[in-house]
């Protein structure tokens, strides 16, 4: 790559040079490009600001490397890409799928840049027995998790190469059953107080921050973790419970709502899902029509007007 | 192009066949009164349609149409390198495939040499823009399908632009958007963005790719007989169009993202 000397100036479509940056709510230049940068676009002077992720130094200026929104923390400027893979942080709740069983560890697909790792030492034994994992446990790893199994876990740590290490050392985490998984762009899932949501329609939803969502049959009050009816032996079970027709319909309805929201790039939370579900029931739409374009548009329109 | 080998897993054509016979029409002059057959001036490029997000499975995608040239590009990235040694930097893979019906002569199903050489040219155009050092252990896979081909040079140029748009759509970090323009030199002068017939009638062709945001160029491809002075004139002519092409690319990117963003923030 060499400098093109015969050209007089640089071609820039939207010179969004930011003066002073005094607007606290970042609505600079809002009319012209809605605060979205393009790769190679100059953002600010590097003399005044520090540059973070998604930027590179271009002489005395800071330019963006991704198409995304500008974010500023004091003097630090970074660009958050609009579409990207999930960037893990420690403590995040993720829904993931086992792709490989290896010695003492599972390789897990968690929508990140690299496969995540679930160590044998960071899972619970069936029945919640506390002891060191023995060689015998290593030999029967497939009785815990097999290839293709879905699980809910927490990001525990990072390896030197940036791969994430997961753990399921809580009775709330572990193998998933009685439901279905939907994939959405990770940016749509905001961090909530709890990502285990029990919707009013009698369906449980686990909103993985990595963009994988698990929709399943509701676990009854008295069978939840720590209650009397909790069956510690069945945490690694591969068999679904009996799910009646109404629950199945509710699960599919919630899944379809999530698919609609992903299609229209609408942020997903338990409140939004409850509202959307009520709206669908109120308007008495058939389950099979939900993914029609006009119903989806009407839902999003109703969500953005009535429920704001 | 003849089928390289008989593939019994496919539905093969009859053993013997004859091409249709067309009457010899008098050839239309390529240029009349300084206008080309589609009515544009010598230094005009064909109108461009560029849109992102048409391939939903891919992490990023773009579709480009310039005149008859139609190209779809899908980006799957970053993906973890499987069964490979640890590497500090990512790897950029560009694969180009002609659809069987894309050219005047039916293409074989298998990849041929031309696919690979075009892939190399697109790869070279994109490589300086992509920040591979930020993607350790990963590969960035770009798949380009040429749906219709009208001028090989314009295919390379359009494919480079579609690929950089798709990379930006996938959220891959880049130093800037890659744009590319091609030209053919003839006795009449320099023709920008030539189609197949115009390339055939020309003495030589030249393709230029670069990052207008940085004012740098990333790739230069010259074929045929061109004097060095003519080559420089071609470069200047191509470079003059860079700003317009850059605007088109940025606009396509903004159009798609703006719509999504508006909804994500609402």
Automatic annotation (TrEMBL), chain A:
Keywords: Exosome, Nucleus, RNA-binding, rRNA processing. Its main location: nucleus. GO terms for cellular component: cytoplasmic exosome (RNase complex); nuclear exosome (RNase complex). Residues 85-156 form the RRP4 S1 domain. GO terms for molecular function: RNA binding. Gene3D superfamilies: 2.40.50.100, Nucleic acid-binding proteins. Belongs to the RRP4 family. One of its GO terms (biological process) is CUT catabolic process. It comes from the Eukaryota. It comes from Serendipita vermifera MAFF 305830. It is found in: Nucleus. Residues 36-73 form the Exosome complex component N-terminal domain. Residues 179-219 form the K Homology domain. This is Uncharacterized protein. InterPro entries: Exosome_cplx_N_dom, Exosome_RNA_bind1/RRP40/RRP4, KH_dom_type_1, KH_dom_type_1_sf, NA-bd_OB-fold, S1_RRP4.
Automatic annotation (TrEMBL), chain B:
Residues 1-27 are annotated as: Disordered. Keywords: Cytoplasm, Exosome, Nucleus, RNA-binding, rRNA processing. The keyword Kinase does not apply. Gene3D superfamilies: GHMP Kinase, N-terminal domain. Coiled coil: none annotated. It is found in: Cytoplasm; Nucleus. This is Exoribonuclease phosphorolytic domain-containing protein.
